[in-house]
Amino acid sequence: MSGAGAESPVLRVAIDRKVYHPASAEPVEAVRGLAFAVGAGEIVCLIGPSGAGKSTTLRILLGLDADYEGRVEPDPCADSARPGMVFQEPRLLPWRTVEQNVRLAMPRARRGRDLDALFAHLGLTPWRGRYPGALSLGMQRRVALARALADAPRLLVLDEPFVSLDDAAAASLRGLVVDTVDGLGMSVLMVTHNVAEAIAIADRLLLLSARPASLVAEVALDRPRHARDRAWAEATRAALAAAHPGVIAE
Amino acid sequence: MNLLTRLVSVVVLLAAWQAAAQAAGSRLLPAPLTVATFIAEEAARGDLFHNVGVTLLRVAVSFGLAMVLGVLLGVALGRSKALNIALDTPLLVVLNTPALVITVLAYIWVGLNETAAILAVVLNKLPNVAVIVREGARELDPGLEEMARTYRFDRRTWIAHVLVPQLQPYVVAAARSGLSLAWKIVLVIELLGRPDGVGFAINFYFVQSTNVAAILGYSIVFMSVMIAIDILILQRLQAHVRRWR
C-alpha cells in the first residue's frame, strides 16, 4: 500500500525544521526532519505523545503557517490544495444552520450544488435546517465531516476526530469515515494520540517522537479496517507499545 | 402576567405621585392630570410635535453616525494591536471628558450651529461604542478563524457569516446603552445652544416661569418615545440576533 502511495502521492511532506519564537522565552523547535507521503486512497495516521508537534504539522499542512523550512506538495497555501478538514472541536458557525455551515465552506460557484446524497449518507437529512447548538457532539462532528466532504477533496484531514465521544458514537463515526473515503476513493491523514483508534482504521501508522517531532517508525497494516478482530488489534497495540515505549503510552 | 405586573407598577407610581402632589399643594409639584393637560395643550399648539420631532431627528442622526463610526473604529482597535496602543490614551481622555465640556468646546470652536451640536453628540458617544465593540473584536473565536482560513472563506463570506454574527451582541448592547446616552446629551446640547427641541423647551419653561408641569410633560413624552423605540426596535433586534441560541 505504501508502495502504491509513493507512485502518486496526494500529499508529500518534508518539513526540515519548524521553530517557534515565543515573545518572552527561548525559541522552541517543534519539528525536525519530518518526511512522509500519503498515497491515493490511503488512510495514514500520525501518532505521537501530546505536545509532540502534531498540531504544528497540521497547521503547516492546512496552509495556516507558512513559516517553516522544508517543502510540502501540493503547496498548502494554494487555493486548489484545500483539503477537507475535520478539526478536533466541530468549529461550526452556531448562528448558521447545519446546511448553511456545509455550503458556506464551499467555493461560491459550487455552493448551490445538490447535497442530498451527502446529507442522507451521513444521516443528517432531518437536521439540515437546525442550528448546531441543537445537536449532540457526535452529530456536530458529522456536520463537520459533511463540511469536509462537500467539495469532494482528494485528501481528508482529521484531527482527533473521535475524542470525547462515547464508544458507540465513535465507532459509528469511524465506520462512516471509512465507508465514505473508500466509496469516494479519497485519502485520509488522521492525527491522534489514541493507538487503538489508529489501528482500527489505518493502512499505515506514522509514529512521531516527542518534540521536536520526527518520524520514529512507520508501520504498514494490512487493511485492518476490514478485519474487525479485537485480539489482533490488541496484540498489534501491545507490540507497538513494547517497541516504542516513548511514543505509545499506557 | 408580565404585562400585568408592569401595569400595576405604573398605576402605583401614578398614585404615589398624585398623593405627593396633593400633600404638597404647590405648583412646584403638579398632579399627573395637570401635566397631562399641559401635554394636550402643547400638542394642540403643535409645539410639542415640533420640539420632539427636532430632538428625535438630532438623536437619530448623531446616534447613527456614532454607531457606524464607533463600530468601524472598535473593530479596527480589536484587530490591530498597534492601533489600539496608539489610540488607547486619546480614547480614555475623551471617555473621561464630561459631556458638558465637549459640548461647550464644540459650540465655541465650530459655532452655535447644527453641525456643532451633532459633532458634540458623536464625540461623546463614539468612544463608548468603540470600546464595547473593541471587546467583541478581541473575543473573536480563534477556532472559527482557523476554520475560515482553512476553507478559504472569501472576504464577503467571512464578514457576513463569521465576523458580523460574533460582533452583533456587542453592537446591540452598545446601541441600547448608547441610545439613552445620546438623547440625554442631545437635551443638554439643545439647552445650551439650539433654538428648538425638547432641551430648549425645558430650559425655556424653567427660566421663564419655573413651569414644572411643562418640564415634566416634555420629559414624560420624550422618555415614552425613547422607551418605545427600545422596546419595539432594539429589544426585538436583540431577540432576533440571539435566535440561534
Automatic annotation (TrEMBL), chain A:
Keywords tagged on the record: ATP-binding, Hydrolase, Nucleotide-binding, Transport
Statement: the UniProt record of this protein carries the keyword Transport: yes
EC id: 3.6.3.-
Residue ranges constituting the ABC transporter domain according to the UniProt record: 11-235
A matching Pfam family: ABC_tran
Major enzyme class: hydrolase
Molecular-function GO term, any one: ATP binding
Entry similarity comment: Belongs to the ABC transporter superfamily.
Designated name of the protein: Aliphatic sulfonates import ATP-binding protein SsuB
Organism of provenance: Methylobacterium dankookense
TrEMBL record, chain B:
Keyword match Cell membrane: yes
GO biological processes: transmembrane transport
Secretion signal, residue range per the UniProt entry: 1-23
Record's keyword terms, sorted: Cell membrane, Membrane, Signal, Transmembrane, Transmembrane helix, Transport
CC per GO annotation: plasma membrane
Localization, UniProt: Cell membrane
Main location per the UniProt record: membrane
Keyword ATP-binding set for record: no
Transmembrane segments: 56-78, 90-110, 212-234
Record domain ABC transmembrane type-1: where: 52-233
Any Pfam family matching the protein: BPD_transp_1
Membrane topology value: Multi-pass membrane protein
Alphabetized InterPro entries for the sequence: MetI-like, MetI-like_sf
Lineage: superkingdom: Bacteria
Stated family: Belongs to the binding-protein-dependent transport system permease family.
PANTHER family (UniProt xref): ALIPHATIC SULFONATES TRANSPORT PERMEASE PROTEIN SSUC-RELATED, ALKANE SULFONATE ABC TRANSPORTER-RELATED, MEMBRANE SUBUNIT
Protein name per its UniProtKB record: Aliphatic sulfonates transport permease protein SsuC
Organism: Methylobacterium dankookense
